[in-house]
């Protein structure tokens, strides 16, 4: 019974320590003298691209066929965010 409890300790510990990389710092971007985490910029740009894509889908009248629409737009947001992250911040 003790070995089962011991195994569950490693999962949270592994999740906590995943940010501890070899280089020891997170990617930041200098904007007007202030450093922002790069993931914030990727999310904001991903949101902008999702809104542009939504307007294009409305223009072509495809948005009525998207079911469930909120899930589709959340997936688009995640997709654009990850693509931007890979394009600009992949080491």
Structural topology:
Blueprint: H1 2-16, E1 28-31, E2 34-37, H2 38-59, H3 69-89
Antiparallel strand pairs: 1-2
Helix pairs in contact: 2-3
Strand content is: 5-15%
* Mean residue pLDDT: 81
Q: Indicate the low-confidence ranges by residue numbers.
A: none
Distance between the termini: 43 Å
What's the story with the biggest beta sheet?
A: 2 strands, antiparallel
The level of helicity is 55-70%
* Rg over alpha carbons: 19 Å
**Major β-sheet strand ordering:** 1-2
- Helix count? 3
Structural class call reads mainly alpha
Coarse morphology: flat
> H/E element string?
HEEHH
Question: How many strand elements?
Answer: 2
Describe, in plain words, how this protein is organized in 3D.
- This protein has 91 residues and is mainly α.
- It is built from three helices and two strands; from the N terminus they run H-E-E-H-H.
- The chain has a two-stranded antiparallel sheet with strand order 1-2.
- Strand 1 and strand 2 (34-37) form a beta hairpin.
- The longest helix is centred in the middle third of the chain and has 22 residues, at 38-59.
- The N and C termini lie far apart (43 Å).
Tags for this entry?
two-stranded antiparallel sheet, mainly alpha, about 90 residues
Describe what is shown at a glance.
With 91 residues, this protein is mostly helical. It has helices at residues 2-16, 38-59, 69-89; strands spanning 28-31, 34-37. 64% of the residues lie in helices and 9% in strands.
């Amino acid at each position: 019974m003790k070995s089962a409890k011991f195994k569950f300790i490693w999962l949270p510990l592994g999740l906590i320590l995943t940010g501890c990389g070899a280089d020891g710092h997170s990617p930041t971007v200098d904007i007007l003298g202030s450093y922002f985490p790069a993931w914030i910029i990727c999310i904001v740009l991903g949101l902008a691209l999702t809104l542009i894509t939504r307007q294009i889908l409305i223009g072509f009248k495809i948005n009525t066929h998207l079911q469930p629409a909120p899930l589709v737009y959340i997936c688009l947001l995640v997709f654009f965010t990850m693509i931007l992250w890979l394009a600009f911040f992949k080491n």
